[in-house]
Amino acid sequence: MKKLALHWRILIGMLLGLLFGVLMLYTSGGKLFIQNWINPFGIIFINLLKLIAIPLILASIIKGISDLKDIAQFKTIGFRSVTLFITTTIVAIIIGLVLVNIFSPGKGISEETVARITNEYVGRQGVQAKLAEASLQKESGPLQFLLDMVPENAFSAMSDNKLMLQVIFFSVFLGVSMLLIGDAKAQPLKTLFDSLNDAVLKMVDLIMLTAPLAVFALLANVVVSSGDPDLLLALVKYAGVVIFGLFLMIVFYCTVLTLVARKNPIWFLKAISPAQLLAFSTSSSAATLPLTMERVENELGVDKEVASFVLPVGATINMDGTSLYQGVAAVFISQALGHHLEITDQLMIILTALLASIGSAAVPGAGMVMLVIVLESIGFPSDKLAVGLALIFAVDRPLDMARTVINVTGDAMVSVVVAKSVGKLNDIPK
To answer: Residue 197's domain is classified under what CATH number?
Structure first.
């Protein structure tokens, strides 16, 4: 009997998790059972993926760059990758702003609903924590992202997944230096990182064996932790606009793949689907990175030299789904709370959301912090920030899951396009 493909096993795990979660909602003690006995397996899975994220980035980037023939090749790959990431992010924000202005979901929310949701969520620790984190970021200077990029201690950076951009900087720096000293002198280090890369990839394979069970646990916990269904229904229009925008981003990716890379979008979506499903389950681009790299290299045919640079960088600075959400959420909150926005304010949203996405942590909940920064950039009253976050807090988790799918898909699309442009896209049977 033919072994069931990974994406089908993950999908089955997700569906069973959703059904089990719904069943436990109507079972006495069901929520507590899932949180105590089921959810820990999902957390362990995510921790395992995060465990290997730094070693994978370190080994793959260094190997990829050091395998290049000259520094000019690296410059070309780097420039095209960053250009495409910025372009897709701007497109995502514009799509979000167009949709939210057309459908105006915030204008359909009554004052009673606003008051109810505010009372429910404004005092929650999660909302206050996001405000505090955003306040710290706001106080930083205009070039803070450059300061945050360069570590003072490489080993310290490698000890914290939130400092992934620093790890990428060190890896690129070391890889380029190895390229410059020549093959003979660099060979001992290349052998070391080649072996490390192979070992980490094998760890990925072993971890993914547990993926169906893990997504079952994660989705079951999401269901029992979703809160009051009435509150979710009150925000269904807003969520619908975000989801529609994310769908249009998928259409945009497929169009680019067809016109630029000359690749079948169905083939692309099928190949990347396991990474998409995992991204949906974990809400983390960083946790999904090992699987994304494996699918892009083995199923899409992107050369390791390209994938090892583009994907880690993308997981850090390319937040298409999150940036689209910023645009929709900022205008939605403004509509609901009566804060009028001029066209200049919406242009400011594009700029701020773009800058906020660079270096934003590729972890669950980072979008809420970015949103506070975006809202403050358009002069949103500071005393209403907590109310604004409270409005969307109820549906943030499922939307976070959906937008992470777009983030990961965008990374994969850019890697294919860049690989095609530099002649490093291998033919894979469709």
So the answer is: 1.10.3860.10
Interatomic CA distance for residues 402 and 70, integer angstroms: 39
Domain count, the chain: 1
Q: Which phi and psi angles does 302 have, rounded to 5°?
A: -75, 130
* Joined tokens for residue 195: 């072996």
Enter the DSSP assignment of 226: S
Paired tokens of 356: 């906020």
| Tokens 């809420």 sit on residue | 368
3-class DSSP state for residue 426? coil
Placement of tokens 């950039």 in the chain = 377
Q: Flag whether 429 is in a domain.
A: no
> Quick check: 125 and 390 in contact, CB under 8 A?
no
Q: Say which residues have a Cβ less than 8 Å from residue 149's Cβ, sequence separation at least 6.
A: 165, 166, 169, 359
Question: Dmax of the chain from CA atoms?
Answer: 72
Cβ atoms within 10 A of the Cβ of 241, count?
A: 24
CB 251 within 8 A of CB 274: no
Radius of gyration, CA atoms only, the chain: 22
- Structure tokens that stand for 164 in this block: 């992934």
Note whether residue 197 is domain-resident. Answer: yes
* pTM for the predicted model, two decimal places: 0.85
Summarised one tens digit per residue, pLDDT across range 67-110 is 877 788 888 999 999 999 999 999 999 999 999 999 988 886 77
Q: What is residue 378's DSSP assignment?
A: T
